[in-house]
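All the exercises in this workshop are built on plain-text protein records. An example says more than a description, so a record of this kind follows:
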Amino acid sequence: MTWCGDDHPELDEGSRLDCIVAFNKSATFLAKMMRKQEFESLFCKLSYRCRHDMRLYSACLTDIGMKIVLSCTCPPHICPTALYRAISFLTYANDIQSRHAGVDDATRAQCLSKLGFCFVREGHTLVMAVDVSMRP
């Protein structure tokens, strides 16, 4: 994970992007295995690294939003703070994914399912569902 910083100039940009793709593919597993702060820190660094590649950037944002939703242990529902943070990441990721082609179907499904979960918890079931479904 230390390669995320600028400490390793020997890594070319292509290798870094390949690593980011690998991290995104294993994000669901990593979300279950890593602590929340560690996961968010890693994927924030990854998102910074690939901020010019909208497909990878939106995948990183989706993964961060997913981890926020999955890691909130407030009974009986997700707490307002986590809900707000998750909606912020997932809405931005959804906007990017709606505008750009070539987004991985699994990433898109993950983003929309977690965003839908957040909207239901927020109480905007019908209005937001119609809004999300009307987007390309």
The mean pLDDT is 87.
